[in-house]
Design goal:
CATH class: Mainly Alpha
Radius of gyration: 22 Å
Number of helices: 18
Number of strands: 0
Distance between the termini: 49 Å
Order of helices and strands: HHHHHHHHHHHHHHHHHH
Helix content: over 70%
Oligomer: single chain
Bound molecules: phenylalanine
CATH architecture: Up-down Bundle
């Protein structure tokens, strides 16, 4: 039953609470290291422009569509889609894409929480380092003063071989996530977002200013914004759109679920605009925070996943007050990862509560526990299970360990497929009056929105899916 109180009557206490929670869901690890690296490697300013185009033309209409489905359905992603389908005279089977979103959320969380565990480990390392610096009377020392730039990267490789530490951090991170979700929408999720997100923004601005004064700001700006249009190949366009969807938390049930807690009075279109803008601004600012620091010590900006965990600690080692700033940096990343993980877990928990009639706390611990176990497999695939191939028969995943298989399955298959079905559903199947009333758009804006969601989004997303599945098509 997807009735009025299907979501247990829970709801945000204000529009701001919703905006902060949704921005918290969107802003995460994707913004902090993936976007800046992609931009730098793939054409700088040209990539940034392309990315902004994807955000405005496809991401934003998708965000609006998902929040709208949730608000109308007032339930988890699956039951909300079913409700909109019923009210539109469409088949209940459309609920399947809601279910796929929930599955994606659970799968993303399984490996996301492992990476968040690494972040937590570095919060601990840098925190201990800072305490040491303070007690030795030198609070503005560089980070990890007793180590050298050659040995600092070993921190990460050693962590990857240390299962008790790896799993311990994973346990702690999932435990915190579950505990917050178990407390409920207002006392847990909303409270976490209203505490963590302002702190996140303050740290982001602070560290960016620090980097601008002590690092190579000009070089960072040149790296991220010098346009090189020759680099915009179909593969790069594909990557930009995929990144926009992941970063905006589209197609993974989180926004539909959070939309289910939005009051009828809230205007959805400006709210969706704010979420999209904030997510994009943070992605760009993250680059302007990280690269001046990376360039200050002449490190490679294209280090990829190790940029945050190996290059930055080396940079903090040599920079003034690196111990302090390094600690604050990992706290910032931790906050970003936590608010995203909360939304991923909530997407699955809301469904389990509705489906099985479980109380919230029970749903949170059971669902969170199951996701945690999948995460253990992801963590072990860094070492003892590195040779295990989940989908070895599929050429796309023939060389992928468990972690990369789940990551790739979600990013290349589930997310684009779900986004495709969402846009087809909202653009072609959902009742036009219902969409007009829920989005509250004026006639002109509604026309543009309809065009984007019915035509541009499905075509563009179909192309990501195609090229993702058959990379050889790109030559
Ligand atoms: N958008 C988050 C990030 O950029 C990840 C995420 C995806 C969160 C999907 C919720 C749902 O890190």
């Amino acid at each position: 039953m997807a009735g009025a109180a299907a979501n247990g009557g829970e709801g945000w206490s204000s529009r701001w609470a919703f905006v902060l929670a949704a921005v918290g869901a969107a802003v995460g690890l994707g913004n902090i290291w993936r976007f800046p690296t992609l931009a730098g490697e793939n054409g700088g300013g040209a990539f940034v422009l392309l990315y902004i185009g994807c955000v405005v033309l496809i991401g934003l209409p998708m965000v609006l569509s998902e929040v709208m489905i949730g608000r109308h359905g007032r339930s988890d992603a699956y039951h909300s889609v079913v409700k909109v389908a019923e009210d539109s005279g469409a088949s209940r089977n459309w609920g399947i894409f809601g279910g796929m979103g929930i599955l994606s959320a659970a799968l993303i969380l399984s490996f996301y929480s492992v990476v968040a565990g690494w972040v937590l480990y570095y919060v601990g390392v840098m925190g201990a380092d800072l305490l040491g610096a303070i007690f030795s009377g030198n609070p503005f020392a560089g980070a990890l003063a007793s180590e050298s730039p050659e040995t600092i990267p070993d921190r990460m490789t050693n962590l990857f071989e240390n299962n008790p530490m790896l799993l311990g951090m994973h346990v702690i991170f999932m435990g915190i996530t579950i505990w917050i979700v178990a407390r409920g929408v207002t006392d847990g999720i909303e409270k976490a977002a209203t505490l963590l997100m302002p702190a996140f923004f303050a740290l982001l601005v602070l560290i960016t200013i620090y980097g601008a004064f002590t690092g190579e700001f000009g070089k960072a700006v040149a790296f991220m914004f010098t346009p090189d249009f020759s680099k915009l190949t179909p593969g790069v366009m594909n990557e930009a759109l995929g990144q926009a969807l992941f970063s905006m938390s589209v197609a993974s049930a989180a926004l539909i679920t959070y939309g289910g807690y939005v009051s009828k009075e809230t205007k959805l279109a400006p709210t969706a605009g704010m979420i999209s803008f904030a997510d994009t601004a943070v992605a760009i600012l993250a680059g302007l925070m990280i690269f001046p620091i990376v360039f200050a010590v002449g490190l490679d900006a294209a280090a990829g996943p190790t940029l945050v965990f190996q290059s930055l600690p080396i940079a903090f080692h040599t920079m003034p007050a690196g111990s302090l700033v390094g600690f604050l940096f990992f706290v910032l990343v931790f906050f970003a990862a936590l608010t995203s993980s909360i939304s991923l877990l909530e997407a699955a928990v809301a469904w389990a509560m509705e489906k099985f009639g479980w109380a919230r706390a029970k749903a949170a611990w059971l669902v969170g526990g199951a996701i945690f176990l999948v995460g253990v497999a992801c963590a072990l695939s860094l070492n003892i299970w590195s040779e295990v191939r989940l989908l070895g028969f599929w050429s796309l995943f023939a060389d992928a360990n468990i972690f990369d298989t789940i990551d790739g399955l979600v990013g290349k298959v589930l997310l684009p497929l779900t986004a495709f079905l969402t846009s087809i559903f909202v653009g072609w199947k959902a009742d036009k009056k219902l969409v007009a009333a829920e989005t509250g758009l004026s006639a002109g804006a509604l026309g543009i929105y309809r065009f984007l969601i019915a035509w541009l989004a499905p075509i563009a997303v179909f192309l990501i899916l195609l090229f993702g599945l058959f990379p050889s098509l790109l030559g």
